[in-house]
Design goal:
Length: 167
């Protein structure tokens, strides 16, 4: 089984990672991509992030929200509510551990592997209830989703560090 494919089962991702990081640093546990908008993203081993454009080959390339991140803890919360979800189910490009979205600010810069990004949105306005909201009565993206613009190009890989950096 390759590293990307086993991440669909949230329970297989090591619990200890959450405990070894601080609130200002974390780690990538899954990288996710989709060809079409509205589809769940599929795990991949690396992503190419292109400055001011987005994730190469992703459906949201060149959109206002160039990169999306979601804590693994949010995915687990929805899984514990009985939903069949895993990394990529919320259309996030990066599933991470160790970074708490509520502690980030708009304009905050993050170093993800070799790439620098800037937080543009925390949370997402959903114009219509998504399938997850309809099933569970709530969704994590309006509160826990982090969106960023890409300030430098590069490749990120599973296991890369994510650090909040001073602007």
């Amino acid at each position: 089984m390759n590293k990307a494919s086993h991440l669909k089962d949230v329970s297989l991702i090591s619990e200890h990672r959450v405990n070894v990081r601080t609130k200002s640093s974390g780690e990538i546990v899954s990288l996710n991509i989709s060809k079409k908008k509205g589809e769940k993203k599929k795990p991949v081993s690396s992503l190419t992030l292109i400055k001011e454009k987005g994730v190469k080959s992703d459906a949201h390339f060149s959109s206002e929200r160039q990169l999306s991140l979601l804590p693994l803890e949010s995915v687990r919360r929805m899984k514990n509510a009985g939903l069949e979800v895993g990394p990529g189910s919320f259309a996030e490009n990066i599933t991470m551990v160790g970074i708490e979205p509520s502690l980030l600010k708009i304009g905050q810069r993050l170093k993800i592997g070799p790439v620098i990004v800037e937080v543009t949105h925390i949370g997402k306005d959903c114009h219509k209830p998504c399938a997850i909201y309809k099933e569970a009565g709530y969704c994590v993206m309006p509160t826990d989703g982090v969106f960023a613009k890409i300030l430098s190009s590069g490749e990120v890989k599973n296991g890369d560090t994510i650090e909040a950096i001073k602007n």
